[in-house]
Amino acid sequence: MEINWKKKMEEQLRRSGFTLQVENMANIGMTEIHATSSPLIFYPLRIRLYERMGWLMCTVDATTVNSSDDHPLFERMVAAVFERIVRHLYHAYGFHLLTYIGNTGNYIAPKESETGEIVRLLAQRWNDRSYLHLETYEEFPALYVTPPWAHQAYALESTDDEWIVYAGRSGRPATDYRADGTELRPHRLSEGDLFFPVDRIPKERGALALAEWLRLERREVEDFMLAFMRTIRKFDPSFGFAWGGT
């Protein structure tokens, strides 16, 4: 008998003290949960459960959190509850859940699971952080990465046999770009961005193979950006003032 991971998530939320209003949207394969009255989190939450690009996604956001002063406390509360829940779902049933906190843009995944290992690699190898952060306009994000050294966004798909890496345009405003190469801020993904596959890494080769691919991709893009800027400065010294980042 196949265990329904969405039902198990509902069950764990109720055990954590939440009062739930559940709406199953079978036509788009999503469950939306409005959770309130928990002794652990005093913000009403909207939780969306869906599958995308091979990941079991759980996105969490609270419309009442609108001040940056609230974000650290809010994230600590959400992380404490959902890390425990997804860890339980991983150890008890083998579900590799990926949680995205919409208000802060950070991902949560059990460190000992395959999902957690991939998130850790992406954060350390590409974002130089211990956590993975994403700013996005998308309503149903998957595992996206917007490295500060690249001028494109990436998406990672998980299949039974391989990880597929996609690259695509970002929705980053042109004003975020400094043509002299001194500052490249992370992108903002806009809904409907087109991604195309750039490589496939067999899972049988392990996470070390993915880590090496991430290292080589970063080096290749950084080398290209340096060569690009050197060429532009050589032939058009006024480029940095006139271009504007289009």
Description:
This protein is an alpha+beta fold. Helix content is 33%, strand content 26%. The chain contains five helices and twelve strands. The strands form three sheets. Strands 1-2-3-4-5-6 form a six-stranded mixed beta sheet. It has a four-stranded antiparallel beta sheet with strand order 8-9-10-12, covered by helices on one side. Strands 7-11 form a two-stranded parallel ribbon. Helix 1 crosses helix 2 and helix 3 (114-126) runs parallel beside helix 4. The longest helix is centred in the last third of the chain and has 29 residues, at 207-235. The chain is globular. 29% of the residues are buried. Mean pLDDT is 83; it is low at 173-179.
Chart the SSEs and their pairings.
Elements: H1 5-15, E1 19-25, E2 30-36, E3 45-52, E4 55-61, H2 71-93, E5 97-101, E6 106-108, H3 114-126, E7 135-136, E8 144-145, E9 153-158, E10 162-168, E11 188-189, E12 195-202, H4 207-235, H5 239-242
Parallel strand pairs: 4-5, 7-11
Antiparallel strand pairs: 1-2, 2-3, 3-4, 5-6, 8-9, 9-10, 10-12
Helix pairs in contact: 1-2, 3-4
N-to-C CA distance: 53 Å
User: Helicity range of the residues?
Assistant: 25-40%
Unreliable stretches? 173-179
Order of helices and strands: HEEEEHEEHEEEEEEHH
Q: Which percent range describes the beta-strand content? A: 25-35%
Tell me the number of strands: 12
Helix run count? 5
Described by strand count, sense and barrel closure, the largest sheet is:
6 strands, mixed
Give the integer mean of the pLDDT values. 83
What spatial order of strands do you see in the largest sheet? 1-2-3-4-5-6
Could you say which overall geometry the principal axes of the C-alpha atoms support?
globular
Going by helix content, strand content and strand pairing, the class is alpha+beta
Question: Radius of gyration, Cα only, in angstroms?
Answer: 20 Å
